[in-house]
Design brief:
Blueprint lengths: L9 H19 L2 H5 L4 H20 L7 H12 L7 H4 L2 H8 L7 H11 L3 H5 L20 H6 L13 H12 L24 H16 L14 H9 L6 H11 L3 E4 L10 E5 L5 E5 L6 H17 L10 E3 L14 H13 L2 H6 L8 H11 L3 H12 L15 H8 L1
Helix pairs in contact: 1-3, 10-11, 12-15, 14-15, 14-18, 17-18
Length: 417
Amino acid sequence: MVQVRAIRSEEGYENALARISELMDELSGSEDQVEDLEAPSRIELDVLVDLVELYEERHHPIALPDPISAIKFRMDQANLTARDLVPFIGSRAKVSEVLSGKRSITMSMARALHQHLGISAEVLLQEPGATLSDTAPGLEYARFPLTAMARLGWIPQAKNLKDQAEELITDLINRAGVGALAPAPLYRKNDSRRVNAKTDDYALRAWCWQVLAQSKDRQPGVDYQTEVITTELLREVAQMSVLEDGPMQAKDFLFQQGIGLEYVKHLPRTHLDGAALRLPDSNPVIGLTLRYDRIDNFWYTLLHELAHVCLHLKECSDENGFVDDHSLRGVESGGSDTTEQEADEMAQEALIPPEIWDDGVIKADPNPMAVLRMAWEARVHPAIVAGRVRFERGEYRLLSQFVGTGEVRRQFERDSG
């Protein structure tokens, strides 16, 4: 018997086929050898056939049938006309375009054709092992702000975005890694959470998923440990504000602690400054919109979301995290949930310790020298002191020379570019 070797190339594959042909001819002339399972030629033939089948499975898989041909075959079988497909595809024009190959089959079409005509998901989607289970039951995919999302590059540009809404959103959900969490209400809107009543929940979901997808693509090399975030660490981050590239320094520092920091532009009707979210592996991610591109707003929002990570995110079981519209700060009605107030206090104390703020003369006389003096004592950027004064006095034209408009976003855009 010739020594049989594993097939590792096309040449080896062709040689094996040739040898199988030789053995078949040889065995066809000997009934005794065909019946004798222990005969050397019969053993060699059996081994070669197994090896060829294995090689073909790996390197010559049988192509899936064309979905249009499968639909037409099923139509012939069931004696259906193009009009009979309207309930599954949408309109006679769409049916015509699908059957002529001018329009691709969407996920919703595929689901209907699979359910009512019995065409396999593998054939309709042209993906071996594909299924048509709904990733996020209950979502109305066309309600997502698809045009704005495409403009920002979160989903591909396409002529018929609504027709492809389910595929595009499902892909975003998969990239975010949220999977089964997607259909759950992400964030409660009640009187103690900092979510604007005018917020579009679909836009908010999309923004959060984009933050998670963006962070998932560049996860920290270390696992986050819950004991990492302390008041001392927040204070250390706050003092980075004095550096010209402080925002980037803070991003790198947090990355080393297993915490992602992502800048993602806000969508219309999100009314959003920042969020504290969590990847499926439990690593936290802070998302910032920088819709108000000011130094004071950046550092307050960052420290507020870090406070959520420290105080609340590990206990957050019924939702993915916290989102914040800080224009509502100080105007929320009361409620039993004090998470936002707790995050406010921790952020404020990290930025300007109470002993410095309470002993300063700035509350009575908020002049420029008093701002600079307190900023030096707290080791933070003067914008942070000016921002605190403006908020507490409700006078947002005061000390505007310190707040640093247009200084942060460009650092993040340069970093991502």
